Each structure stands twice: as C-alpha cells, then as structure tokens.
Amino acid sequence: MMPFLLADNANLEHRLPFSVICVGSHEQKEIDRRENGYPAHQLFLTRSGQGTFRMLGGKTFTVSKGMALLLPAHTGHRYRSDDESEEVWHLGFVAFGGGMADALMSQMDDLVLFAGEAPNFNELWLQLEGIWHTINKGGEHAYEASRRLYDLLLTFMEGHHPAAQSTKKIYPTDQPNPALQAAVKLIHDHYGERLLLSNVARAAGYSVQHFHRLFVANYGMTPQQYVLQLRMRRSVQLFQDYPGITVDRVADKLGMDASYFIRMFKRTYGVTPKQYAKGHIVADDC
Asked: Where is the HTH araC/xylS-type domain (predicted)?
C-alpha cells in the first residue's frame, strides 16, 4: 500500500510542465458523487479486485486487475468496488496537472475515458511507486517527480501502442540503416552479457564515436541508455517470473555488477530490487 500523499509543490505547480497533485494506493471502497469531477487529471491502476466507475453522463467502466483508466479533470463521476469481486479492490492513482498536461491529454485522446488492460501494467505500477517515494521525500524533489510522472504517462501510451513504439525503436527512419539494425539486434541478443560498446560498434562497421552519434540521432538515446532500458525491463520480468530469485542472480543474468544493478534499478523505479520483489510477492499472494 502507498498511503495517500498530497504533493507539496509550493509555487512550482504552474511552472512545471507536469506536476503531481496527489498519489497513492489503497483498498478502494466508494467515492460519493463528484458532480464537477476532480480538479486534476487522474490515472487509475487496478492492482487486484474489481470496481466500477460511473460517469455523470451515464457511461460506465468496469476495471479489474491489470487494467487502467485515464480520467480527465472536471469529469463528473463516482466509483465503488464490486461486491461480487472475491478480492479487495486495490486501486493505485496519481492526479496531475502542469503547463503541458492538457496538451499531452489531447495527444492521448484515444486513451482518455477508456478502461482497458495495460500490457505493461507491472512497469506502470513500479513507476507509480517511484513517484510516491519521490513525493514522500518532500517538495524539494518536485522536478524529479515531474520527470517520473512524464515517464509514467509515456509508458502508459507505449503500452497501448506497442506496434508504433516498436517500429519507432527498431526502424526509426523511412530508410533504416541496416548496420544500425544489426547492432540493435546484437544488443537484444546479448544484453545479458557484459557488452562493450566498442564491440557493438565494430560489428556495425563504425568507429565508437561515429556509432555513438548515429545511434543517438536514430534512437534518441545513447547505446548505453538503450542497453540499460532493456536490462531494467528484463529485471522486472525476472522478478515476476521467478518468485524468490535473488538480486545477485538477477544482476548476473543481466550481465551487471550487483551493486550497480541495485543503484540503477532504484534510480529507474524509485525502490530497490529487494523492495520490489517483496512487494510483488505479497501483492500476488493477496
């Protein structure tokens, strides 16, 4: 559980492109009629159980385990857990605003007021926990919370548009560079080993410097960042697929030093691998 936290953004809220208003998770019961909705946009994630959202216009959404709902600000609604559900309705949420929030909501028009399964739910939940831990540190971390919120919303979009996202990563231009594609395939095939950038560049037929420039221009990140992203996502999958697996074992499977893996995992998700593994096991046993 992540007890409700109200963000202390002081005067930063209107200066930040994305700002967290509140965040948390709990066993949701019932929210009485909100005629004018909530004054901020909200993303809801259902960890277990089932509940129903009823919009004042008559539209109804049933959300169960692994599903998400994006609710725009000032949308009248009410919601409650379903009595027939065998599990408690464990609902995570983040309310947000900021100067760029409305524009991003417009970009996500097809996902607004749409309840559906989130293919990357566990990654979303980890990022939600990361936001909670950041807000729990205090208002001086508002910029970090803003970055984490933006990452969460992009992950939410990515999960619902996997084909477009995959195309963007693997074939980033109309005329993809075959050598870069071969290098990316090499990374995907061997990211669990101790990859050296010089070896990947050599396989692509480039100098390290030229390969680095081409990769950033085509993929929007450095090769090292790309490898780290793959490893972090794989680590979450390993913790899910193998309950009880040790942190050292996961690090070894990813070709990473254990202490470096722990540091990068916490930087990415806001919790240590051990905290995540423990929380994931407990949640699955509920």
From this structure: 181-279
Give per-residue pLDDT as tens, 216-226: 877 777 888 88
Q: What residues form DSSP beta bridges with 239?
A: none
Report residue 18 as tokens: 């994305």
Two tokens, residue 42: 């909200």
In eight-state DSSP terms, residue 112 is B
Crossing angle of helices 178-190/162-170, nearest 10°? 110
| Per-residue pLDDT tens over the stretch 14-60 | 678 889 999 999 888 767 667 888 899 999 999 999 999 999 888 99
- Is residue 127 within 8 Å of residue 148, measured between CB atoms? yes
Predicted TM-score of the model (pTM): 0.61
Domains of the chain plus CATH, in order, are 2-160 (2.60.120.280), 165-220 (no CATH), 225-285 (1.10.10.60)
What does the alpha-carbon distance between residue 168 and residue 42 come to, in Å, rounded to a whole number?
Answer: 27
Average pLDDT score, the chain: 83
Write out the H or E segment, with its range, that includes residue 92.
Answer: strand 90-97
Q: Which amino acid is at 79?
A: Y
| Burial of 149 from C-beta contacts in 10 A (0-12 / 13-18 / 19+) | buried
C-alpha 26/C-alpha 68 separation (Å) is 15
Question: Which residues lie below 8 Å from residue 77, measured CB to CB, with a gap of 6+?
Answer: 31, 34, 37, 53, 54, 55, 56, 71
